[in-house]
Amino acid sequence: MSVSETSGRAGRADWLRDALPKLVLSPSFALVLIFVYGFIVFTFYLSFTDSRILPSFGLVGWQNYTRLFSLRAWDIAVKNVLIFGSLYILICCVLGLALAILLDQKIRAEGFIRTIYLYPMALSFIVTGTAWKWFLDPGIGLEAVVRSWGWTSFEFDWIKSSDMAIYTIVIAAVWQTSGFVMAMFLAGLRGIDNEVMKAAQIDGASNWALYRRIVIPQLRPAFMSAFVVLAHMAIKSYDLIIALTGGGPGTATELPATFMYSYTFTRNQMGIGAASATIMLMAIAAIMVPYLWSELREKK
Amino acid sequence: MATAAATTNAGAGSAQVIRTGAGSRYVIYTLLILFCLYYLLPLYVMVVNSLKPLSEIQAGGMMALPDALTFAPWASAWSSAQVGVEATGLRPYFLNSILMVVPAVAISTVLGALNGYVLTKWRFRGDTIVFGLLLFGCFIPFQMVLIPMARMLGLMGIAGTVPGLVFVHLVYGIGFSTLYFRNYYQQFPTELVRAAMIDGAGFFTIFRRIMLPSSGPIAVVCIIWQFTNIWNDFLFGASFSDFDSQPMTVALNNLVQSSTGVKEYNVHFAGAIMAALPTLFVYIVAGRFFVRGLMAGSVKG
After folding, report:
1. Which has fewest Cβ within 10 Å: A28, B6, B223, B224?
2. Which residues 70-99 on chain B approach chain A with CB closer than 8 angstroms?
């Protein structure tokens, strides 16, 4: 119901008063329509054209998509985002939940500890990447440090290995976001109805059973939010790769986001770049649309 | 609004029920402290090694405190290090980032406040669809807009400039700022707005006199969120800036990745901390609001 229906003076002033809110909203809406949805349509269209270094408008049907899916580099990027995404989501959730439960035991200096767990979220990956590069570099990082402590056969050179490098990305990404997931679960824990727990406790249930049977099932909404946020971050990951490996060794740590960038802007295969961006959008939409839909409907 | 800062209220929360013995409390505190070290380690490495001469780093022992404390890496990173082709240090790029962040945050926050006000207090047919479209715009992969945006900035005559970056961040910041203000204004009593309207107050008078005075907390959340996001952005900065309009993140990446000569780790770390300081400062001063911003972007308001 519009609030403006309460008074009824006729005429132009009335029209203006009715239209004013929409007029105020319209510049933002227009910007988003053009720069989000217009651009999505444009890029989608480009994915069916023979664009190379510059956009061109000769249609080539599904050719870019068939070429995209036959490219080994894209294959690697997709596999990587699946490995990276699933490990990243899984470890962040497990670690986040564990830390939230530990921190929820009436801990002294809880606020201080929470601040430490969360600060990586405030930093750019380009910043923390400098420290991670050191840590992962066998010449001066963890490997060198552990060897200098006397364990001379210690090996940690994942970042140099095409099979293992993707896991170093997981390590760094988990460090960056797990504190945030902890905060989400902690908020969930604070909202739990504890009557059932009290009853179960009187019946002699152990702490472990209380968490497993009563608390964790009640955290479903927090799990949902964490999954959506993490999945969406995994698909969009870009600075992470640039800062840590630049996609290497070789193309071992390329993700769709870096693939799109290099095919579009350095290899001048804009049609294929646009096709890969379209696939990324589809993947994100498949996750975000149902989530936003249910959130908006619930709020009514 | 669900926030990690929420205090435990008497009626709910799992911690009210769970009892832990002294032994397990010892384990819990040990684990919590170990994780503190885990999260602090990269920052420690950055700070400690930014204060060492390079020879000390090359000699190994990056975990050790500096033997010969020096601020030379900081001076070099700020004003004389080689960033790309020129030896300007990071100073000009720090200024670029400030010039980019301030207008982009200010304008997107004001627009978000007005949009939130319209979407909750002046509702119209289809307003949920409008909001949904604004909201989905926050989450699209920006790879989908890079190609047309590069062209559009060219057409607008602001390609490769700081104003161009301001524009890009402004456009893609509107969705989140609208989300924050809409969720916040939804809790605001509509009766007050209605009463003011009967007294003859207009659209902007109500906004200025009734909505704005109580918008402090959400404005802080929104400003912090936008500031952190825009300051830390790399993709847009790398795509749409020229050499002299690069933001801090892009310049730092150039500094760190430059392959010429010896890798000056101490200078890289000093530069990294410089790029981190503004957002770190905001986080430490207003951490409560920062967390609330993060949560509002993920958990419903």
Report:
1. B6
2. none
* SS3 state at A49: strand
User: Could you tell me if A10 and A146 lie in one domain?
Assistant: no
Give the range of the structural domain holding residue B214, as residue numbers without chain letter.
91-296
B65 inside domain: yes
Does residue A56 belong to any structural domain of this protein?
Answer: no
**In this structure, are residues B169 and B233 in contact, taking their beta carbons and an 8 Å threshold?**
yes
User: How many domains is chain A partitioned into structurally?
Assistant: 2
Q: Choose from A36, A89, A223 for mutation: most chain B CBs within 10 A.
A: A36
- ipTM of this complex prediction, to 2 decimal places: 0.87
| Domain coverage including residue A214 | 71-299
Distance from CA of A163 to the nearest CA of B (A): 23
Contacts of A144 in chain B (CB under 8 A): 60, 62
B280 has a chain A CB within 8 A of its CB: yes
Q: Is A149 part of a structural domain of the chain?
A: yes
For residue A1, give the H/E element and its range. Answer: none
pLDDT tens digits along A37-80: 999 999 999 999 988 888 888 888 898 999 999 999 999 999 99
A122/B280 Cβ within 8 A = yes
CA-nearest residue to B253 within chain A is: A126
Same domain as A183, residue A34: no
Instruction: Measure CB to CB from residue B122 to each of A2, A29, A135 and give the nearest one.
Output: A2
CB-CB under 8 Å, A179 with B39: yes
Q: Does B290 touch chain A (CB under 8 A)?
A: yes
pLDDT tens-digit map of A147-186: 888 888 888 888 888 889 999 999 999 999 999 999 889 9
**Is residue A207 domain-shared with residue A261, that is, in the same domain?**
yes
Query: Do B224 and B119 belong to one domain?
Result: yes
**Contact (CB<8Å) B12/A193:** yes
The reply to whether B43 touches chain A by the CB within 8 Å rule is: yes
Q: Which of residues 195-254 of B touch A (CB under 8 A)?
A: 197-198, 202-203, 228, 231-235, 238-239, 249, 252-253
In sequence order, the β-bridge partners of residue A193 are B12
- Reduced 3-state DSSP string for chain B: CCCCCCCCCCCECHHHCCCCCHHHHHHHHHHHHHHHHHHHHHHHHHHHHCCCCHHHHHCCCCCCCCCCCCCHHHHHHHHHCCECCECCCCHHHHHHHHHHHHHHHHHHHHHHHHHHHHHHHCCCCCHHHHHHHHHHHHHCCCHHHHHHHHHHHHHHCCCECHHHHHHHHHHHHHHHHHHHHHHHHHCCCHHHHHHHHHCCCCHHHHHHHHHHHHCHHHHHHHHHHHHHHHHHCCHHHHHHECHHHCCHHHHHHHHHHCCCCCCCHHHHHHHHHHHHHHHHHHHHHCHHHHHHHHHHCCCCC
Q: Cβ B111–A27 below 8 Å, yes or no?
A: yes
pLDDT in tens, B23-64: 888 899 999 999 999 999 999 989 998 998 888 887 777 778
Whether residue A121 is found in the same domain as residue A219: yes
